[in-house]
Amino acid sequence: TKGKGKKMVVISVQHPDGIHQIVCIIGRLIVLAGAILKGKSEIREMTNVGIRKYFQATGAAFLENCLSCSFCCGIIIVNILHLLDIQAQTIVLALVSIIGWGYMLFFVMAFQLTGPFVFMIYEMLFHDVLRFCIIYMVFLAGFSQAFFVLFNNNGFGGFLVSIKQCFFGMLGDFDLDHYTGTSFQYISVSLLVIYVVVVSILLLNLLIAMMGDTYGNVIEGATQIWHLERARIIFAIENEMSTDERKLDKNKYWTNVDGQRYLQVEEVDKDCFRDINNDDENYDKDKKRRT
C-alpha cells in the first residue's frame, strides 16, 4: 500500500510465470544469435573491402554499415549488462531499439517509391541540419552565458538552466517573467528579443530554405538517385557474402529486379561492346556485300 486514507493506493506486483520467462529467454537467444551472425557478416565485409573503405562508404552502404555495427554491438552489450544485472541495460536497449528500426530504412531505399524519400532525409540530416546545428551552437553558447551572468546563477547547474531556457526560447516556449525578474530586466529582455529574431526567425527559416533546395535537387534526379542507391545496396549485400555463396550457380548469371530475372553481363573488353544501331548498320552492309 501507498498513501493514507482516500489517497491510499494498493500496488500489486505480479511475477512472470514460467512460460513467460521461457519465451523471454528464447527471444533473447534468437536476437543474440541474429546479432552474432550479422556481426560475423560485417566482419567478413570489413575483411573484403578493408576497414577504411568500409567506413568511407556513402549513401545506402554507409547507412547499412553504421547501423549494423551499432545494432550488433548494442545487442551484445545489452546481454552482458543483463547477465551482470546492471540497470544501464535499459538505456542501451532503448537506443538499440531505435537503431534496429532505423535499419529498416536500408531496405526501403531499394524501392523506387520510398528510396528517394529516404535519401532526401539522409541528405537533410547530414548536410542541412548538421550545418544548422554548428551555427546554432555558437548562438546558444553565447546567449546562454550572457543570461547566466545577468541572472547571477551559481554553478554549472545554473548554466545548464540558461541553456535550457535558450533552447525553449528557440521553440517559442519562453517565460517573459523569468527574464524580467532581475535587476537588469531591460538588458535581459533586449537580449531575448535579439535571440528570438536571430535564431527563431533567421536561422530556422534559413534551415527550411536549405531543406527546400535539397528537396528540389533530390526530386530532380530521383530516378538516377534510386538506381545509384540500389546499386550500392547490391554491392553492400555482395560484400557480405562468402566466397562459397558467390560461387553458387544460381547467383552466377542472373539477378532479380522487381521480381523479374535479368541476365547480368560483365564488361571485359569495351571494343567488343557496341550499341544496337551500329550492329544493325554493320549487318546491313554485310548483307549488301553478299548480295
From TrEMBL:
Per the record, the major location class is membrane
Q: Which Gene Ontology BP annotations are present?
A: calcium ion import across plasma membrane
Q: Which GO terms describe its molecular function?
A: calcium channel activity
Question: Which Pfam families does the entry mention?
Answer: Ion_trans
Keywords (A to Z) from UniProt: Membrane, Repeat, Transmembrane, Transmembrane helix
Residue intervals passing through the bilayer = 58-84, 90-122, 129-151, 184-208
Question: Which residues belong to any copy of the Ion transport domain?
Answer: 64-218
Compartment(s) of residence: Membrane
Q: How does it sit in the membrane?
A: Multi-pass membrane protein
Q: Which PANTHER family does the annotation name?
A: TRANSIENT RECEPTOR POTENTIAL CATION CHANNEL SUBFAMILY V MEMBER 6-LIKE, TRANSIENT RECEPTOR POTENTIAL ION CHANNEL PROTEIN
What protein name does the entry list?
Ion transport domain-containing protein
